[in-house]
């Protein structure tokens, strides 16, 4: 059962056909492409006049959607990819009985009764009625044969299917119930199948595991517009499957040079995106917080080499910096360090003038400013700090500049957003999350340090005696010498396979579509009575009913989300409570946003607010 891609369900499509969008309200404003200035509607190019001046190019948005939909695999495609990968794994596992650990084939006399060696490319693995069997044209035979229909992939009579006990609250819902936003046990939650002395059937295991789909936030659903939703593509899942099946130790050239090369290729590619020199170094991590911690460790070792100075060291953040940054100080043994939260300006960017005053005051008080963190894509608002100005201050006071690009970083792929990343190439380190902008599974962060030698100096591993016979080359930059992690999961395939299969252009279009949809939502809400909306920088849109209590705005949130079709949350910025929408899931398209807009309008009408003469926009 596909619990995330409800956009393919008939009921979901039926809703789109029966919801009419209203005309846009006049509002004179100018925007860059795909907006153009005009005084009339251009029906041939499918442009909708938003006002007397602004025209929204729906043809451009449709093209982006068509490209982005490449990421939405069908059951047949998923089945094909999985079984092709399975053939490779079967051949590899069969080969394990014939190979030495170093990979070369044992001579025939050592095959322990085998008639012949299994050569690469010959996948005749047969041993029982439930066996996956593959040849040139065969995928599988036996009772667990893959079946592909319009809406499901089955793998046997008891495979995961939608059933009454699976506790869905409607076919299109993001959550398992209207009130399941809070943590805690819901009405349909069950205990996982226990670990037992004796095993059970694969059918029972899969049936038990499938319940997780009804006891989770469905972050891949097009209506999930809260937090920064995680998404994963089919090739990324295949990448994890292959990584776990081949299971190389991927942090050392001597163990698996090709795995190291795959990781280094990803790191260098991301470095080039941000304008870093080839001398940069980095690593794939378990997420943005660990990426930030690796960068901060390097900053600490370079700027504050003596632990006796930790208590007078100062870290500078904006009031909108992600909470994971300050959290890292405790892990780094710098709990006593001073943390300064710099206010943001009216565009929600770090106020550099106040930053400078904070630093000057700290220097006068014999404190040690050592690190400032700029953000390109704040989690609350999507705002981007002025990196060039912050770089100038950091240089003046000999501080390390780290850029948190975890949410916004991969928007650098989009031509319309490249200017937002000006100056990032001068940062000492960057943290970015492929499990956000590249739609990799959760647990995929990436750290970059501009001067790779500094990163290596902070993390070089001194091997134990048990590894003294391993051949090493001092010129090899092993991933284990660029992070504190060892025995880490081989994360590269989950990032690399989708990029290789779809190409960078597909991801660029998917991300550009989200930027356009955020502008689209902003323009539609901007014309609605009783709604104040903040113009988006990236793909996050804040809105609220002005002039009423926070409880009234929370009531609006409940009205919008009560049926579970959409999941959004609130945030508080500069003391003001907003409803927050982030458009980030690659399955979210214009028809989903249109449905959401109508739900907002209906919710406002139900609240019976007094008439206003103009709409509020912020």
TrEMBL record:
Superkingdom of source: Eukaryota
A Pfam family hit: Pyridoxal_deC
Cofactor: pyridoxal 5'-phosphate
Gene3D superfamilies in the record: Aspartate Aminotransferase, domain 1, Type I PLP-dependent aspartate aminotransferase-like (Major domain)
SUPFAM superfamilies: PLP-dependent transferases
Renumbered residue ranges of the record's region Disordered: 124-194
InterPro entries xref list: Aromatic_deC, PyrdxlP-dep_de-COase, PyrdxlP-dep_Trfase, PyrdxlP-dep_Trfase_major, PyrdxlP-dep_Trfase_small
Key words, A-Z: Decarboxylase, Lyase, Pyridoxal phosphate
Coiled-coil regions listed: none
Record PTM N6-(pyridoxal phosphate)lysine, positions in chain: 436
Annotated GO biological process: carboxylic acid metabolic process; catecholamine biosynthetic process
UniProt-recorded Gene Ontology molecular function terms: carboxy-lyase activity; pyridoxal phosphate binding
Compositionally biased tracts (Polar residues): 124-134, 142-155
Stated family: Belongs to the group II decarboxylase family.
Protein name: HDC protein
């Amino acid at each position: 059962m596909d619990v995330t891609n409800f956009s393919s369900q008939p009921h979901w499509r039926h809703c789109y056909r029966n919801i009419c969008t209203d005309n846009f309200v006049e509002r004179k404003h100018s925007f860059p492409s795909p907006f153009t200035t005009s005084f009339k509607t251009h029906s041939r190019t499918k442009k909708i006049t938003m006002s007397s001046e602004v025209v929204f190019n729906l043809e451009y948005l449709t093209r982006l959607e068509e490209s982005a939909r490449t990421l939405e695999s069908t059951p047949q495609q998923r089945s094909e990819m999985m079984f092709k990968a399975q053939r490779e794994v079967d051949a590899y596992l069969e080969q394990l009985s014939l190979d030495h650990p170093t990979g070369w084939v044992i001579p025939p006399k050592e095959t322990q009764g085998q008639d012949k060696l299994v050569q690469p490319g010959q996948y005749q693995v047969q041993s029982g009625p439930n066996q996956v069997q593959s040849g040139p044209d065969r995928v599988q035979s036996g009772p667990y044969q893959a079946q592909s229909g319009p809406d499901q992939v089955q793998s046997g009579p008891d495979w995961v299917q939608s059933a009454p006990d699976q506790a869905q609250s409607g076919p299109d819902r993001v959550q398992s119930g209207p009130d399941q936003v809070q943590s805690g046990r819901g009405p349909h939650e069950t205990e996982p199948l226990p670990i037992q002395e004796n095993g059970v059937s694969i059918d029972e295991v899969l049936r038990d595991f499938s319940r997780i789909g009804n006891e989770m936030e469905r972050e891949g659903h097009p209506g999930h517009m809260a937090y920064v939703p995680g998404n994963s593509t089919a090739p990324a899942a295949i990448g994890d499957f292959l990584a776990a099946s081949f299971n190389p130790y991927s942090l050392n050239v001597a163990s698996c040079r090709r795995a190291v090369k795959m990781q280094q290729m990803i790191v260098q590619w991301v470095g080039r995106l941000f304008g870093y020199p080839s001398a940069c170094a980095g690593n794939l991590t378990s997420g943005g917080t660990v990426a930030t911690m690796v960068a901060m460790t390097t900053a600490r070792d370079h700027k504050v080499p003596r632990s006796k100075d930790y208590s007078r060291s100062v870290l500078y953040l904006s009031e909108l910096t992600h909470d994971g940054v300050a959290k890292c100080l405790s892990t780094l043994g710098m709990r006593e360090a001073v943390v300064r939260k710099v206010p943001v300006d009216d565009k929600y960017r770090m106020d550099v003038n106040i930053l400078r005053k904070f630093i000057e005051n700290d220097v006068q008080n014999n404190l040690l400013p050592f690190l400032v963190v700029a953000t390109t894509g704040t989690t609350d608002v999507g705002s981007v700090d002025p990196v060039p100005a912050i770089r100038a201050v950091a240089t003046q006071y000999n501080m390390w500049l780290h850029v948190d690009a975890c949410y916004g970083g991969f928007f650098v792929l989009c031509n319309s957003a490249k200017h937002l990343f000006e100056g990032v190439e001068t940062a000492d380190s960057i943290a970015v999350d492929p499990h956000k902008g590249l739609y990799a599974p959760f647990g995929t962060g990436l750290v970059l340090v501009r001067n790779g030698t500094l990163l290596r100096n902070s993390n070089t591993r001194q091997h134990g005696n048990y590894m003294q016979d391993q051949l090493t080359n001092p010129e090899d930059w092993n991933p284990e010498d660029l992070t504190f992690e060892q025995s880490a999961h081989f994360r590269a395939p989950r990032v690399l396979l989708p990029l290789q299969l779809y190409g960078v252009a597909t991801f660029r279009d998917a991300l550009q579509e989200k930027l356009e949809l955020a502008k689209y939502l902003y323009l539609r809400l901007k014309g609605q009575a009783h709604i104040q909306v903040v113009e988006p920088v990236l793909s996050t849109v804040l809105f609220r009913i002005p002039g009423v209590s926070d409880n009234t705005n929370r009531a609006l949130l409940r009205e919008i989300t009560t049926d579970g079709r959409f999941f959004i949350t609130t945030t508080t910025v500069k003391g003001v409570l907003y409803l927050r929408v982030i458009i980030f899931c690659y399955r979210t398209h214009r028809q989903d946003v249109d449905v959401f807009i109508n739900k907002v309008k209906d919710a406002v009408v139900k609240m019976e607010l007094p008439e206003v003469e103009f709409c509020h926009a912020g």
